[in-house]
Amino acid sequence: MFRAKLSVVPGWLALCATAWLVAGCSTTEADKTANWSPNRIYSEAKDETNSGAYDKAVPLLEKLEGRAAGTPLAQQAQLDKAYAQWKAGDKVPAIATLDRFMKLHPASPAIDYALYLKGVINFNDDLGMFAWMTRQDLSERDQKAAKESFESFKELITRFPESRYTPDARLRMNYIVNSLAQYEVHVARYYYTRGAYLAAINRAQLALADYREVPALEEALYIMYLSYDKLGMNDLRDDTQRVLTKNYPQSEYLSRGFRAKDDPWWKLW
């Protein structure tokens, strides 16, 4: 039977190997914050944030959470960490940090800010609201982030109507509503241009049912008018035209048609 032969390692070689392992372990970077006070850690984290080094600020703030646990400074560290994570491009962890903050500190005086920041993170991660500026097809984009942003702002203004963040949240909510309505209308137009007239009507009707007093509804009616015409449903076509003319007497859709794709993004008229 084959048996492995164990060789004896010379003592001097064993000592060298041990010394090498010890040297290797000694290269582990020491925690430079070990003797720092919580206030110093916070100050360093703020400096990193202010200089745009968000990736360096996050670990400092995480250390501060542990060192100052149970204090207002630890709560501030959580909020600042969420902001730094967002600015570093880590939006999912940032939202998770805010959700954790609101769960652990439901009575915190900074809940309004947490809701506002969560709304802003999703607002900038809109996945659709600014797509028309870059000529991207809204029908290929998701509106989940925009809707979540709206819900955060809605909770903010409902629970904290006097918050300093409420006025801006209201403006953003209006923009989101307009954008979501425009998304539905864009999809309706997408269907129309591909000859799916019934689908175009259904999507335009969805926009009319779900939204009120937003600019996109004018185009929704126009798409319905065209689709009914293509389907030979003349009575419904004429009814839609009357509604369009009554609500938008200066509408150029009936004379000009759809806005050209090469119109500048800022051209809203």
| Total DSSP E strands | 0
Q: Helical region count?
A: 12
What level of helicity do the residues show? 55-70%
Proportion in β-strands: under 5%
Q: What Rg do the Cα atoms give?
A: 29 Å
Write down the overall mean pLDDT: 84
**Intertermini distance:** 91 Å
Low-confidence stretches: 1-9, 126-134, 262-269
Q: What does this protein structure show overall?
A:
The protein is elongated. It has 269 residues and is mainly alpha-helical. The protein has helices at 11-26, 38-50, 54-67, 72-87, 91-104, 111-124, 144-159, 166-193, 197-210, 216-230, 234-247, 253-256.
How would you summarize the topology of this molecule?
Layout: H1 11-26, H2 38-50, H3 54-67, H4 72-87, H5 91-104, H6 111-124, H7 144-159, H8 166-193, H9 197-210, H10 216-230, H11 234-247, H12 253-256
Helix pairs in contact: 2-3, 2-4, 3-4, 4-5, 5-6, 6-7, 7-8, 8-9, 8-10, 9-10, 10-11
Quick recap of the structure?
By secondary structure, this protein is mainly alpha-helical. Helix content is 66%, strand content 0%.
Looking at this protein, list some descriptive labels:
269 residues; 12 helices; mainly alpha; single chain; 66% helix; disordered C terminus
